[in-house]
Fold this sequence. Notes:
By secondary structure, this protein is mainly beta.
Amino acid sequence: RLLRVxxxxxxxxxxxxxxxxxxxxxxxxxxxxxENRNSVIDFARTHTVLxxxxxxxxxxxxFRVDPTKHRLVFEIFDHNKLTKDEFxxxxxxxxxxxxxxxxxxxxFPIKDYSLLKRSVLQRVRGTxxxxxx
Length: 133
């Protein structure tokens, strides 16, 4: 089945750029097999929004999914020109529980997700809003 994903926005991201006080965030989206967290079946990336902790991407993506076997992982990063991009937070979506069986609607029901850490030592805050149809 084709799944339409709308990456809408994030709010109140953790500040990583010490000089400017803002960030240049983007989102990586990975389609994974639920039982194998290291698997990446498909991948997409939003554009980078410059100088903000409240980015609006408003981008749509299409993934071919099996809702009973796949999940989506969303990771937000701060783009850096001179150093490695910094992790700002993540969340995952269990497709079996999150999408209707079949959807013909053009509208995306938008849902907010609290951002999570990848490790204990990371500081993460904020929420991200996406829609699935």
